[in-house]
Design goal:
The chain has 313 residues and is an alpha/beta fold. It contains 13 helices and 11 strands. It is 35% helix and 14% strand. The model has no long low-confidence stretch (mean pLDDT 94).
């Protein structure tokens, strides 16, 4: 198997655990640098990172696995497959879509047309939920298979104290529902504190919102910061698997999430349809229980995984 590219933040969450699950059955090569175009600091090296992922030949590979199906050099691999190894399978992980409101993928020139090409060119694309497959009814190559979550599910979830602190784990970007989050902040009393695990934007009026911005910090630091308890908030518009939310729930926080279908893994009582409904949940000291956590673990244990598909199970 050839693994094409690296996935920045999601290397630790998705790619490395997946390699661990399949390494006994596959001889694995990796080519290419960081493909994460969500991070502006990657831009200067992004083109070179893509071109360094092109192998001399595909003859030795049964599978070429793309860490993100949004790959800007996929046409080269399709061409090389046709002349070097037609039986080689091109597979990728679904990581964003123009179907999602404000998704970063929409910023790519001609993104809609290119996504249509991507969906038609892979032999298989792994998606985390049925609802994502339903977005692309004309594509018969989408496989519903959950992404690795064993690290989160294997944690011993602590019973934290009650707290009126709300944490925002996402990138501070509109595709993650920043405006809805700020409206919620404005509506809450001074008894509620807010922490954002990202840097404060230039020119942001924090005199108005009084949010604590931590910048990007390590998992160890996040676990320590949230150890006093509270809630993990999401008003995301674009989401597939929110590893940040799963991390914070596994560290003992209670999720307060919108009705985005990515959050169907959380019971209805933790989802809100309005700011007022979200406020009531916090005022009433809603808690995510051990039973809720065990049900989530059970859901993922029973799910069909990417590694199951790659190993032919």
């Amino acid at each position: 198997m050839l693994i094409v590219g690296q996935l920045g933040y999601h290397e630790k969450n998705i790619i490395l655990p997946l390699i661990e699950e399949i390494k006994e059955e596959y001889e694995i090569d990796r080519l290419g640098g960081n493909f994460d175009f969500f991070v502006p600091s990657n831009y200067p090296n992004l083109i070179q990172n893509y071109f360094s992922a092109i192998p001399n030949s595909l003859k030795d590979y049964d599978v070429v696995f793309f860490v993100d199906f949004w790959n800007m050099i996929l046409p080269m691999f399709v061409w090389k497959k046709s002349i070097e190894n037609p039986s080689c399978r091109l597979v990728g992980i679904y990581h964003g879509s123009t179907e999602f409101e404000n998704d970063v993928a929409c910023e790519i020139p001609n993104a809609k047309k290119y996504e249509e090409y991507l969906l038609s060119s892979y032999d298989s694309i792994f998606v985390h939920f049925d609802w994502i497959k339903d977005l692309h009814k004309t594509s018969d190559n989408l496989i519903v298979a959950t992404y690795p979550v064993s690290e989160q599910m294997n944690r011993v979830r602590p019973n934290l104290p009650s707290s009126k602190t709300v944490y925002f784990i996402h990138r501070f970007h509109e595709d993650k529902g920043v405006n809805s989050f700020l409206a919620f902040v404005e509506s809450c009393s001074e008894k509620v504190n807010f922490v954002v695990f990202d840097s404060m934007p230039v020119g942001f009026n924090n005199e108005k919102y009084k949010i604590k911005f931590t910048g990007r910090v390590s998992q160890e630091e996040i676990k320590y910061i949230v150890s006093t308890g509270g809630y993990t908030w999401s008003s995301a518009k674009s989401e597939i698997v929110s590893y940040g939310m799963l991390d914070l729930v596994s560290y003992g926080l209670t999720p307060i999430v919108n009705n985005h279908p990515a959050y169907q893994i959380f019971p209805r009582k933790f989802r809100y349809s309005s700011i007022e409904e979200a406020k009531v949940k916090i005022e009433n000291d809603l808690r995510y229980s051990e039973t809720d956590w065990n049900e989530l673990i059970s859901y993922y244990k029973k799910s069909y995984k990417i590694s199951d598909s790659l190993l032919g199970r």
